[in-house]
Amino acid sequence: xxxxxxxxxxxxxxxxxxxxxxxxxxxxxxxxxxxxxxxxxxxxxxxxxxxxxxxxxxxxxxxxxxxxxxxxxxxxxxxxxxxxxxxxxxxxxxxxxxxxxxxxxxxxxxxxxxxxxxxxxxxxxxxxxxxxxxxxxxxxxxxxxxxxxxxxxxxxxxxxxxxxxxxxxxxxxxxxxxxxxxxxxxxxxxxxxxxxxxxxxxxxxxxxxxxxxxxxxxxxxxxxxxxxxxxxxxxxxxxxxxxxxxxxxxxxxxxxxxxxxxxxxxxxxxxxxxxxxxxxxxxxxxxxxxxxxxxxxxxxxxxxxxxxxxxxxxxxxxxxxxxxxxxxxxxxxxxxxxxxxxxxxxxxxxxxxxxxxxxxxxxxxxxxxxxxxxxxxxxxxxxxxxxxxxxxxxxxxxxxxxxxxxxxxxxxxxxxxxxx
Length: 420
Fold this sequence. Notes:
Elements: H1 3-28, E1 68-70, H2 77-82, E2 90-92, E3 100-106, H3 111-126, E4 131-137, H4 147-158, H5 163-172, H6 174-177, H7 182-195, H8 200-207, H9 210-225, E5 233-236, E6 239-241, H10 247-260, E7 277-284, E8 287-293, H11 299-310, E9 317-318, E10 320-321, E11 327-330, E12 343-345, E13 360-363, E14 375-378, E15 391-397, H12 399-404, E16 410-419
Parallel strand pairs: 3-4
Antiparallel strand pairs: 1-12, 2-4, 3-5, 5-6, 7-8, 7-16, 8-15, 9-16, 10-11, 11-14, 13-14, 13-15
Helix pairs in contact: 3-5, 3-10, 4-5, 4-8, 4-9
């Protein structure tokens, strides 16, 4: 199963379980569907208890092992996509350093293509340093009577460095020209050349040149030879995307792919002993919050939080506030609410810790072995979460700041203070 679908499947499992958890809390308070993916078993990584530092000191408390799974490193999907670029592609963005390639096969006379085009432009503009937009012609010459000439117009504009300007204009004004006869459409294109301040004579000459006509014909034949069934067809990196084509959906996938470049492919080493005194200061857009962490109660959760904080993972993370005002949540650099650190690990449930007060700090997960980087701070008692989420700290200072946080605020940085 291809990597993109496996990744989306994995996020889908986590998201679905999170929604199930949320519903439990509330109770107490024109593409083919993607084929089902099968998960690749991931090896458990065993964490060993730290060795004693000296024979004259007591042996440190043993740390119970919990299952931890890390994503496997592989060839960068973006670099793989970059290898498939051709001289006929129209590229917007940094193809050398981009981490997400949106490759679209499109037809200027196709209505869904016109709907998708501004979405892709918006996603690329929102992540201009990371997202590369690649346009490939696939004019349906057997369906659309003006598909060929429209594609030729875009190529003629490209000869003067204005492919994307003509691309945007043709899609934006599609309803204006699609019903014209051939002569009227050529007059429309002549006016479009003037609007874009092209050399009109050169544009009209290139418009019907043998070279450009042959290029467009070849694009059609290439699509047929590769059995492309329809337009638009969108690939994210090298994998076919069959999800919703609205901005929110495509942007979410792009953000998660950008995040994948930062994820870790091994579980963090245990560096925080269970008897350590550990505090964390969250510097937010609303002020400072000091957390007291509980390595004796949730050693793996605290160790992971400290590791990620010291790696800068939490810097500039978006804050999300629960609609029912039960908690505020953060810890996903993608800002989608679906991202994780690249590894997940099991629940740690201390018998004496309950969601019976404000200021409890816990990992946001789907239960089981899905703890990772996201965490939340309670704004009220949430007893329905008892036994379903790992509490690993509490607010020591700044509960007023926690209460003031709203969706759209940010954690600017996190600093850790350890006291042996």
